Fold this sequence. Notes:
The structure holds two protein chains of two kinds.
Chain A: E1 2-7, E2 12-15, H1 30-37, E3 50-55, E4 63-64, E5 68-76, E6 83-93, E7 98-100, E8 108-111, E9 116-124, E10 129-140, E11 146-158, E12 161-169, E13 175-183, E14 189-198, E15 202-206, E16 209-212, E17 215-218, E18 225-226, E19 231-240, H2 242-245, E20 254-266, E21 270-275, E22 279-282, E23 289-295, E24 299-301, E25 306-314, E26 320-326, E27 332-335, E28 340-345, E29 350-359, E30 363-367, E31 370-374, E32 379-383, E33 387-392, H3 394-398
Parallel strand pairs in A: 4-11, 24-33
Antiparallel strand pairs in A: 1-5, 2-3, 5-9, 6-7, 6-8, 6-10, 10-11, 12-13, 13-19, 14-18, 14-20, 15-19, 16-17, 20-21, 20-22, 23-25, 25-29, 26-28, 26-31, 27-29, 30-33, 31-32
Chain B: H1 11-23, E1 31-34, H2 47-64, H3 78-82, H4 86-102, H5 108-156, H6 163-176, H7 182-185, H8 194-200, H9 215-225, H10 243-246, H11 283-290, H12 301-308, H13 310-316, H14 320-324, H15 326-337, H16 342-346, H17 351-357, H18 363-374, H19 401-409, H20 411-417, H21 430-438, H22 442-455, H23 471-486, H24 490-497, H25 527-539, H26 543-565, H27 579-606, H28 610-623, H29 628-642, H30 645-658, H31 664-681, H32 685-698, H33 703-715, H34 719-732, H35 734-737, H36 740-753, H37 757-771
Helix pairs in contact in B: 2-4, 4-5, 6-9, 9-12, 11-12, 19-20, 19-37, 21-22, 22-23, 23-24, 23-25, 24-25, 25-26, 25-27, 26-27, 27-28, 28-29, 29-30, 29-31, 30-31, 31-32, 32-33, 33-34, 34-36, 36-37
Amino acid sequence: LIFAVMRLTKPTLFTNIPVTCEERDLPGNLFNQLMKDDPSTVKGAETLMLGEMLTLPQNFGNIFLGETFSSYISVHNDSSQVVKDILVKADLQTSSQRLNLSASSAAVAELKPDCCIDDVIHHEVKEIGTHILVCAVSYTTQTGEKMYFRKFFKFQVLKPLDVKTKFYNAETDEVFLEAQIQNITTSPMFMEKVSLEPSIMYNVAELNTVDTAGESQSTFGSRTYLQPMDTRQYLYCLKPKQEFAEKAGVIKGVTVIGKLDIVWKTNLGERGRLQTSQLQRMAPGYGDVRLSLETIPDTVNLEEPFDITCKITNCSERTMDLVLEMCNTNSIHWCGVSGRQLGKLHPSSSLHLALTLLSSVQGLQSVSGLRLTDTFLKRTYEYDDIAQVCVVSSEVKQS
Amino acid sequence: SNANTVKSASDQDDSRDIDQRKTQEEILFREETIDLGGDEFESEGNETVSEDSNNFVDKLNEQMMESVIISDSPNNSEDDTGELGCLQEIVEQMEAKDNKKTQGEVDKEEFLSNESETEHEETPKDISEIGTDDQASLKEESVQEAVKEEPKLGNDIPIETKPNSTNESKSEDKVSSLGTSKPSSEAEPIPVCTIFSQASNVNTQQQLFLPDGFEPQMVKSPSFSSIIETPVKSNPQVVQPSPSLSKFFGDTVNTNTLASDFFDSFTTSNFISVSNPNASSSVPEQMSSLSNGGDNNCASSSPTFSVRNGRPEANGHPSPEITQSPKPFSQIQAVFAGSDDPFATALNMSELERRNDAWLPSEETRNVLISVATQQYSTMFIDKENLTMPGLKFDNIQGDAVKDLMLRFLGEQAAVKRQVLNANSVEQSFVGLKQLISSKNWRAAVDLCGRLLTAHGQGYKKSGLPTNHTTDSLQLWFVRLALLVKLNLFQNAEMEFEPFGNLDQPDLYYEYYPHVYPGRKGSMVPFSMRILHAELPQYLGNPQESLDRLHSMKLICTKILEHLEQGLAEDGSMTNITQENRQASVQLWRSRLGRVMYSMANCLLMMKDYVLAVDAYHTVIKYYPQQEPQLLSGIGRIFLQIGDIKTAEKYFQDVEKVTHKVDGLQSQIMVLMNRAFLHLGQNNFAEAHRFFTEVLRIDPSNAVANNNAAVCLLYLGKLKDSLRQLEGMVQQDPKHYLHESVLFNLTTMYELESSRSMQKKQALLEAVAIKEGDSFNTQCLKLG
């Protein structure tokens, strides 16, 4: 028996080299006639380079993680004898496991001379690195002799994509995810799908299309594919779901955002798919007590009081008894009593606080100087640069 | 079914990431790299090394074009492995490493066999390596042979050899200081022109080529060799002007100089009028010696030398005749200027010629041409760089790879049976040339072109020597270069194209030869040759250069069309053109512009700039609306190739809307074919096969459908059926189906079937030997 294995990547289209001439040229219509007679040209448009003829893959090529490894296994009886009880087994040995790829494990009763057993195996490649295809054949000759042999075919699985991510935390608990996906293969890659599958805590909005006249257009334009080494940047906005947003303070430490699901296609629809691991992000540290601004005017008059609303959330595990102190800075002057009791604040609960202040200096001023002291632990939390406000002189504002 | 999840970063990675986070808590955002999939290997410590070597092997793989069959081919004997070079060592190192990793899982027995196995794997590579080596060495040999040939030729005439070079340098010196070309040059007071004037006499002699070719060396060398100081005065006729003009010199009537000899012999004569200084035959010598009598005394080479050698001398001592030449020259001008002159009228170029030859020279070239036309010979010194001096760069690529393979595999007896036309077996003319081309003996045709060009004085080693161009010589160059491209001998084509520069040198315009082509305007360079010239760099890995050239062609085409729209002639002159002719001209130039766009689109496709390529193909549709269905299908296939199935589908749907442009049967085939391709893109080989078969039902002889159906069968695991289909197709009409793509598929399947693939391939070789010419690309048989 003879054994042959061939990797079945997609066939390629034959390209021809058009050489044309005009009627008045020496060869007359000879060149054009030659091209017409060539079966690989497109009839009626012979100058078109890309033909319709399919050619079988010419080399093993590269195989990438997420793609499907297909292979033809042919066992051919080259002898003049009938052999019996043929069992073909194809295993794939990776660095971590051994997979059986044979479609059927049943033995073929007999194989006549010059006949063959064919099998096409498929396997979605899930590991990087060395893979070894192990093909084994066992059979019985006419003389009853048991025969067994096997062959090994080794190939490397490469990484197709390079993914980089970046998180941006908005003040409003939204999280923006920027994902850079780079094609590190050697062929153009059509990105069929790049989506973010959020974890249960988030809703996701894809920001990769622009609405123009009711039609959503891709921000990547008409170029639907990635050339080798090209990078594309995808942007997603994640909003905590309502039930989690309530307990915004509770989302802290490492949180699971979700994972990217990428589907691409290459030559003639050769498909690949990858998912990243769970993307995790460090929630910004708010400490025990989080102070966030609810409302603030953007422009205020010089030396005129204005109101802001703060929200104070207890992010710790214990109840707090808070005292608010307000310290004036060079420009910011707080109105009202400093050192007032805010009362008890339970874990994960929050309270709203309206404050009045004025600025004595024009320009962009930073609101600073709030101090919260937990009387139980005698611990003081300082809040500076909470927000910025534009201070103008009253004349300007009126005009 | 394919919803697989690839767990990416390994646990290790995760924990590492978390650590990082803890240390960087303050930072709100940060960049991190996610490893798609286990880097298990790399954690082992020797990571960098293993990765490097992996890459290296990958690179090797790419270069070596490893055969698809990863099995050891049964044909490779153990001996082959012995020949593995350093490649093998690397592989073995690799092996060792990999084995280390997998040792745990792979038992020892496997381990051993594994190693031996991979050795086998590499054997195909090895063979191919050896194969290419062989080829290389073969080439070298042929070159050496060529080199050898010359000395041999030299030995025949023992005197020469060395002086050759010295003379060349001399002639170069002359040329640089030399005025325009042959016809007008005789008017100049500068003696340099003698080269041309002398040479031009040659044209009267129609020389039959010797079948062996390559006389030029023999001829040239004697003329330059013996440096005997013969006074010029002894032979004043040396500086005889060009024949066409000679009649106007009262005293030097030369009987055999007819202007008509210069005319385009393109359609009428089988032979090229030899009008070049470097042309073959010993005519120049003869002419000089016998110029008084003007009759042909068969001068054997030796007597002529003495006379001939006067020429270099002539430079130093202008003969009296030369000094007086300007005067008669102006008279000539007068003769040609008058359009009433029946002679000149007869020479008015035809509408057709004007239309086809029109081309817009660059500013610089235009100035030279104008000065030629107005005979401002004081300004007519043209730099050598501005002249086109082509010559064959290699003298013989004749060979029949099919026959070589037959000798190797089938033995001498079989090889003898292989009969193809070669350059010797056809008439040494355009007729013979066409015969060779249509019988697909392109190598022989290239050879014949070379011979014809040699006869024209542009033969081997003539590059860089002054020469004249005719319509014929440029057509011959075009055919030769086009065939080289067709044979994928791009490097050779580039070498021979090089002296032509950007095809805009003044001596490539008819205006440069006012006496040879009186009144004729435009470029001698065929438009198709410009296309060829523009396309060539892309096959040599320089598509940007191709694009540049195509763009400048596009500009000129557009300009010419503009001129026509403005009521001017193609070149922008105020010639009157009838409406009918104008229409025809617009049509011609539109289609030429379309051809340029086609090349651009093809070039962009080659550059893999698909967006621009698709745009360019859309433009082509505007120029060739009748090709819309084919082009839209083509665009669809481009998207299919990228993997953008949806857009491909959209284009295929568009095709169905416009298929009325082609006749019923063809449109049906096109639609079915596109559907088949779409299924292919969706990984549905069964459906694709169904549609290809459907095409075959309508058009049983459709080679593409036949081949593609067979390919689908293979992917469906039906090797035997697939083979049967392809074999049937080849046997049914070998004349049509012995195409390299089909044969490539067939041989690949033979290898997969792996039983006696060698014999089967050899059977194919025999079939090829009967049907195909010497241009057959034997690589697809994978016999090497």
